RNA sequence: GGAGGUUUGGCAGAGUGGUCGAAUGCGGCGGUCUUGAAAACCGUUGUACCGAAAGGUACCGGGGGUUCGAAUCCCUCAGCCUCCGCCA
């Protein structure tokens, strides 16, 4: 959520920035917000004046009672009766406009950073660089969904039987390889200074709201209605919410967190689209990295996170490319996002395996995550997060790219984790 | 799941219908003293919104109610603790 003061101080700049994200009705929304804001302030003044009068009267009545002046006190009570009605009305008016202001405000996306390229579709994203080499596969190379069957690594059918499609069942060396990747990613993150957490996999309404999953993306989450809890779509939600309603001493910044969790996504409306094999699942594993940063250092931190992810891909020897998303392709809450894609050689496709974003104060504003600066002023911190990394598509690319006529070669860095160097 | 207790400022802890945004202690910050530090002493020390300012308003776990007036009384929800039950 944008800060109301930013909009109040420079509405034109806000509208101009939102154009980069192709928000068509930005001008209308901003105008609406400014109008609500003005109304809200005037209504607060009215309400506060009435409350002030009521407080004064109550005090006077108390004094009069104390002095034994009952009749005088009772006379004053008469005024408070009508005052009560006005206060009730004033409070309702204020609450209603406050609610409307908030509802409009949460619908406004974050402002993109000035380096974000203008563009509406993924075609207009900006490729930063590439790394690794695309392997030349042998004649009988297969896509991963055939490989996992051939070597009995993942059983999609039984997963579907137990739960439904998109819930894979990992088996034997497939399970071991998955666990190896999780441990490998976590070790890289903790070596880079991230503190490891194992958070709850289910969150309440307040947490889902604070990181922006609610109210807009409710359909993306599995909802446990009996307890009004949500299965996490990403570890970002519980990890970032550790710092909800927190004021940090400036000296504690930056904060670096990591955690492995399964992620649950309903993917409503995505049925049939790239859903073969591991490409798109309802449950998948991911290691997430999160940073809480001083505003002055958040973009350096973003670069650092990009480098972190890049080095992991390099050590796995996967061909990758890094893309800076254009305004139209960026998420609602992000000010700048880098996507990582790896090349899945048998599918002959680039697959998104990580997304690293700086949210600046957008998320912190909802979280009420602040730090106390040198002048003892509380300021919103910057939050960043990224996948490091999402497992399924890494697994898909590894299996496809490393297949040989004799079996699938396990990358060197993973062998200590798997205990085997070849799947045959 | 049942019974009881509890939830107050960074922490500890008082307050049980009016002058309480809230005593006191610790911690923090500033100062005096000191070559420096400690100790001692003095001062200061919550958050948010409105306002040019003066000042105003709200917040004592969340929500609602009683009352002219609620941290204090009532209802309700949640967290924590203890005992019982169940259980990995």
Number of strands: 19
Count of separate structural domains = 2
- How much β-strand is present in the residues? 15-25%
Number of continuous helical runs: 13
The CATH topology of the largest domain turns out to be BirA Bifunctional Protein, domain 2
Question: What structural class do helix, strand and pairing data support?
Answer: alpha+beta
Low-confidence stretches: none
The level-1 CATH class of the largest domain: Alpha Beta
* Largest sheet strand order: 1-11-12-13-16-10-9-4
- Give the overall silhouette: elongated
CATH superfamily of the largest domain: Bira Bifunctional Protein, Domain 2
Q: Profile the largest sheet.
A: 8 strands, mixed
Write a short abstract of this structure.
This protein has helices spanning 4-9, 11-20, 26-66, 70-105, 144-150, 156-162, 172-191, 205-210, 236-241, 298-315, 362-367, 391-401, 415-418, and strands at 126-131, 154-155, 169-170, 195-197, 202-203, 223-224, 229-231, 246-249, 255-264, 283-293, 320-324, 336-344, 349-360, 369-372, 378-380, 382-390, 403-404, 407-409, 422-423.
Salient structural properties:
22% strand, RNA-binding, 19 strands, BirA Bifunctional Protein, domain 2, 424 residues, 42% helix
Q: How are the elements arranged and paired?
A:
Layout: H1 4-9, H2 11-20, H3 26-66, H4 70-105, E1 126-131, H5 144-150, E2 154-155, H6 156-162, E3 169-170, H7 172-191, E4 195-197, E5 202-203, H8 205-210, E6 223-224, E7 229-231, H9 236-241, E8 246-249, E9 255-264, E10 283-293, H10 298-315, E11 320-324, E12 336-344, E13 349-360, H11 362-367, E14 369-372, E15 378-380, E16 382-390, H12 391-401, E17 403-404, E18 407-409, H13 415-418, E19 422-423
Parallel strand pairs: 4-9, 8-14
Antiparallel strand pairs: 1-11, 2-3, 5-7, 6-7, 9-10, 10-16, 11-12, 12-13, 13-16, 14-15, 17-18, 18-19
Helix pairs in contact: 2-3, 3-4, 5-12
The structure holds one RNA strand of 88 nucleotides.
